[in-house]
Amino acid sequence: MKRFPNNDNFTYENGYKAWLSAIFIDLRNSTKLFTENSEVDVAKVIRGFTSEVIEILQKDTQDNELKEIGIRGDCVFAVYSTASKEEIYDIYQRAVYINTYLKMLNKLLDKRNLPNIKAGIGLAADKNLAVKAGRKSSGINDFVWIGKAVTTASNLADLGNKEGICPIVMSGTFYTNYIDVEKNENSKNWWRKNHDNQNGAYYHGNIVRTEFDEWIESGMID
User: Fold this and answer.
1) What is the mean pLDDT of residues 132-155?
2) Which of 76-80, 106-110, 207-211 has the highest mean pLDDT?
3) Are strands 119-135 and 168-171 parallel, antiparallel or unpaired?
4) CA 174 to CA 52: how far, in whole Å?
5) What is the mean pLDDT of the chain?
6) HEC states along 89-119?
7) Would the pLDDT of 112 be above 70?
8) Domains of the chain
9) Signal peptide position in this chain (predicted)?
């Protein structure tokens, strides 16, 4: 199957296998953030982080493209049905926008004497099996993604923005599809390649949207 169907097509008896991409945005040092600042200040920071990130992840998506979006503790995530390299590239663009937005958010937090935040942004793509799990008539159900993409994106987000790893971290498969679409001749120089036993080859970089970043650096004046 090239693409996952609409969510209404899933039952407790069937399952579908297709290409999907996952993105996880995982806060760094959240324990320190939560324990060393006032509850009101933390609430303001978390609301600013989650609401705008979710907006970026949802914007201009079709019903059968965005399969799941949610918050797990201090992490925002989304899962997309990506039937083409161009759609995988779109997920990359969302990651870059989020990475740039976090720079703006920290500038605004500085002005209000609120704590800054950092996040790792993990990206992965692969062919996965999706099944609906839960109990009939209970109203409690969710998708279970059986395969590498979601787990790998979560793992890579945990690596991002610490111990010398840049904020955006993508799996080897995601990179291979993304780079085929990227038109900038210097794009391969944006990324550093690493490898570990858990995630295999992965690429990390600190890419931002140029015009957005310049506006932030100029003082965010219209």
Assistant:
1) 83
2) 76-80
3) parallel
4) 24
5) 89
6) HHHHHHHHHHHHHHHHHHHHHHHCCCCCCCE
7) yes
8) 16-134+141-217 (3.30.70.1230)
9) none
